[in-house]
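A.,

Following up on our hallway conversation. Structure tokens first:
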């Protein structure tokens, strides 16, 4: 039993959460207090649980400034998930599972990539192209990534960047942010056979090489991009149709930003994107001027029985959008997540009833979000007054009138007026 005790303690430690429950916006905070308390039980508990306590380290957290540098470097051998934004050395970390590193911090930790050839996840954030030149030799040693997140602004050496991406043949998830100048992608490189998720968080009209990159992803299942007016929707749709037979998810980025109407894709471009998949769409998220009946018909005709996610963000406050939303809820029996968001003050509460005009078939619904309903609020009335938006039911008015008459009669006849007012309790 004594020999099993460390294993039992370890399992207890693993089950103790180190992060708070995510907020509605997805934010989560490091809360190690419970695990720290467990390390104080006795020496055995301390020795077993200390490595778990240091699995996650982020120098942006407030606690970082209370940790002596000598202790930090000693405990760095326990790091598994590391975020470094300032030039401190963590060279003893040799079993990393995820590394998030920023600019100058990389120059102080070049050895991390050499010491972690098994590293599966890397997020690299560079402020300028100068740093990239200096870290190229370290990047050349990295070839087993499964997840890569890259933010590097204006990039001077696209050929090396393409080579770096292509060298990681096991890559499954790729995210590219805020890059400028990705003007080509050498199609002679080996296709990325394992890449299933591609997130392009940048302007694609300024980076045509990223649109070509889609053609190198025959196993692609999900793609994210900005559905703005400058988005080359036709080229994206063509590349998906010709080279990505497994794609089932098309999502826009920052859909709730509600840009000007002139900045959004036109209906014909959205229809092209919906029709480009050879398989049925499972997840569809898009911003548009309005959710027209034409877009709704095309979406439901091809994908209704398979859709699990439908998130629509509209600019106009046309009631047809709500009618289309009602049709989605009535037709998609496998729907798990539904969102319909309009720009500020899009609809009245009475308009929202349109969503209930048809019986919903979405018995598997897990998340429902409706935004853009407005109401009157007077003075300090935070709840608002919904009554202004609904026509009173004549039967309700008659019942209310009869109740008031009975109260008046009771009071006039010497009855218990206090009891009479219980009509309204």
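Then the amino acids I'd put at each of the 425 positions:
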């Amino acid at each position: 039993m004594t020999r099993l005790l460390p294993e039992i303690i370890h399992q207890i430690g693993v089950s103790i959460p180190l992060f708070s429950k995510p907020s509605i916006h997805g934010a989560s905070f490091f809360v190690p207090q419970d695990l720290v308390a467990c390390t104080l039980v006795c020496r055995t508990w301390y020795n077993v649980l200390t490595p778990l306590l240091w699995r996650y380290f982020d120098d942006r957290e407030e606690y970082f400034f209370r940790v002596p540098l000598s202790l930090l470097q000693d405990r760095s051998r326990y790091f598994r998930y590391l975020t470094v934004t300032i030039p401190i050395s963590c060279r003893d970390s040799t079993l990393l599972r995820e590394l998030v590193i920023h600019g100058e911090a990389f120059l102080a930790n070049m050895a991390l990539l050499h010491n972690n050839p098994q590293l599966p996840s890397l997020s690299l954030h560079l402020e300028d192209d100068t740093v990239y030149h200096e870290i190229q030799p370290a990047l050349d040693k990295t070839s087993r990534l499964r997840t890569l997140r890259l933010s590097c602004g204006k990039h001077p050496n696209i050929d090396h960047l393409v080579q770096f991406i292509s060298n990681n043949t096991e890559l499954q998830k790729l995210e590219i942010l805020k890059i400028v100048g990705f003007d080509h992608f050498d199609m002679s490189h080996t296709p990325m056979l394992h890449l299933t998720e591609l997130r392009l968080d940048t302007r694609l009209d300024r980076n045509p090489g990223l649109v070509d990159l889609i053609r190198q992803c025959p196993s692609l299942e999900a793609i994210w991009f900005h559905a703005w007016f400058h988005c080359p929707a036709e080229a994206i749709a063509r590349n998906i149709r010709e080279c990505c037979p497994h794609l089932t998810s098309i999502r826009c980025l920052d859909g709730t930003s509600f840009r000007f109407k002139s900045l959004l894709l036109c209906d014909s471009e959205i229809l092209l994107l919906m029709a480009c998949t050879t398989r049925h769409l499972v997840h569809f998220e898009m911003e548009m001027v309005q959710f027209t009946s034409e877009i709704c018909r095309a979406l439901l005709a091809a994908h209704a029985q398979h859709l699990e996610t439908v998130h629509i963000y509209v600019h106009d406050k046309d009631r047809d959008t709500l009618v289309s939303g009602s049709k989605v809820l009535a037709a998609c029996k496998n729907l798990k997540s539904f969102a319909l968001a309009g720009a500020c003050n899009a609809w009245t509460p009475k308009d929202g009833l349109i969503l209930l005009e048809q019986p919903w078939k979405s018995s598997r619904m897990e998340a429902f979000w409706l935004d853009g309903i407005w109401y009157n609020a007077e003075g300090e009335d935070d709840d608002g007054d919904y009554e202004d938006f609904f026509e009173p039911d004549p039967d309700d008015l008659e019942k209310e009138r009869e109740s008031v008459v009975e109260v008046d009669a009771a009071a006039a006849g010497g009855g218990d007026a206090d009891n009479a007012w219980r009509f309204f309790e």
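The radius of gyration is 29 Å. Curious whether your intuition agrees with the design.

B.
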